Amino acid sequence: MRNKNYNNLLVLLAILLNGASVFSEIKVLEVKVPPVATRGAEVTFLCNYTLNDESHYATRWFFREELVFQVRSVAGREKKEIKGTFSVELEKSNSTNLVLNDVPLGAAGPWSCDVIGSPPRFSRDVSSTILQVAVFPLNGPVITGVPVRLGNLTSLTLNCTLERAFPPGLIHWKVNGMNAVDDDLVVYPPIEHPDNTTTTTVGINVKLDSPLRSPSIKIKCIGQILDCYWKTKEVVLKRQGIVNEDMGVSTAFSISAGIPTRCLPYFFSFIFFVILISFY
Ligand SMILES: *[C@@H]1O[C@H](CO)[C@@H](O)[C@H](O)[C@H]1NC(C)=O
Ligand SMILES: *[C@@H]1O[C@H](CO)[C@@H](O)[C@H](O)[C@H]1NC(C)=O
Ligand SMILES: *[C@@H]1O[C@H](CO)[C@@H](O)[C@H](O)[C@H]1NC(C)=O
Ligand SMILES: *[C@@H]1O[C@H](CO)[C@@H](O)[C@H](O)[C@H]1NC(C)=O
Ligand SMILES: *[C@@H]1O[C@H](CO)[C@@H](O)[C@H](O)[C@H]1NC(C)=O
Prior knowledge:
binds 2-acetamido-2-deoxy-beta-D-glucopyranose; 2 domains; transmembrane helix; membrane
């Protein structure tokens, strides 16, 4: 009988404590990470939370289940502790910001910010987000197999290679602005490198007989990584000479990087240049 009353009291206490926490809960509003971080770069994670009346609390950052960094705040003073194996910038990190340098590919995945208040309520909230880590090649795609002159060639095969990307790059070919048809493509096995990057090569067979009625053929290779890296290189095959209808090849290589807004913090320059090489 006594025992039962005691239980009821506990239940009542729990309801009261819960009710109290409705008015003074810790809330994690947002965890912000860059949508894509480049391997080896410095990355800042932001945990935006409201404390209400808590002045003693701890912020903890987890990568998956692994505790990476924690800060205990007591009346405005912070005690920081690095845990685990990630390279945390202690000076730049605090109860709202976590700064990692030299981000490895292994940092890709869910990161969560967990804020917990002091006893007796232990008001607590957690929020997570996904970090992607990528390796972008310094150079854009490279086209090989361009002949010095077309002569009497009726077809030719070009390769386009995107070196050392993570995740593996995609290659798209366009001929005179149209997507190449699959039958004209030659897909080679990707090359895996020890640093976990991949080199991708896709070839294209170009028929020269009928299209050469037009003054030139524009063949464009586009290298893509995720949704934020697009670089193109273009070869223009031109008919040269009128008398013998001999053809020369002129190649225009252009590299451009069209970076959508959501990747912008990681690319500070927009590269666009054209080199024109003519062969006679
Ligand atoms: C935190 O979130 C609030 C509400 O969305 C916003 O007004 C504030 O600017 C954010 N703070 C930071 C540092 O992003
Ligand atoms: C944490 O550091 C960032 C800059 O690194 C600063 O903007 C922010 O106000 C700091 N937060 C706290 C709670 O000190
Ligand atoms: C295209 O690449 C493949 C695989 O690397 C190679 O075997 C082939 O010779 C290349 N062809 C041209 C035209 O460069
Ligand atoms: C193409 O031209 C070369 C010399 O330039 C010649 O030896 C060859 O027979 C020609 N091929 C065809 C199919 O006309
Ligand atoms: C490559 O991936 C493996 C397996 O995910 C990992 O153990 C290794 O550390 C990675 N190497 C590099 C250089 O990122």
